[in-house]
Amino acid sequence: MVSSMGRDESSNRSFPLRDFAEARAMKVQRAWEAFDIELFREDLDGVRFMGLSVRLGDNDRIETMVTVKVAIDGDRFVGFHSGPIASEAIAQALDKALDGAMEWREDKYATSK
Fold it and tell me: Which of 19, 22, 73, 89 has a Cα at 20 to 30 A from 106?
């Protein structure tokens, strides 16, 4: 019998795909928790995170695109990160935003309103 956790209860055997998905989910969760903690720090040097969006890829043909929006001293900026695996792209985008490795561009859409 297979449990809802993806394990065969009769042999206590795990399914590789389920284990892979669980490992990816844990990586995203850790990145999100670090990001969440940073949002409440008071010494972010005028940086305010405004949003995060994810456009999922289509199988192996289109990568997942993650967009991070920030306001820095009142000016709006946007950063992009993409990757073939959605969970990796999200975790890496969050890491880059926090580490200062994200390449920011003026958010022309936000400033044109």
Answer: 89
Q: How far apart are CA 107 and CA 1, in angstroms?
A: 52
What type of residue is 75?
D
Number of other residues whose CB lies within 10 A of the CB of residue 10: 8
Is the distance from CB of 68 to CB of 79 less than 8 angstroms?
yes
* Structure tokens, 85: 């695996």
pLDDT tens across 11-42, in order?
556 677 777 778 878 888 887 787 777 666 65
Relative orientation angle of helices 86-99 and 16-39, to the nearest 10 degrees: 20
Sign (positive or negative) of CA dihedral 27, 30, 33, 35: negative
For 61-83, the pLDDT digits (tens) are 789 999 999 888 889 999 999 99
Please give the span between the terminal C-alpha atoms of the chain, in angstroms, as a whole number. Answer: 56
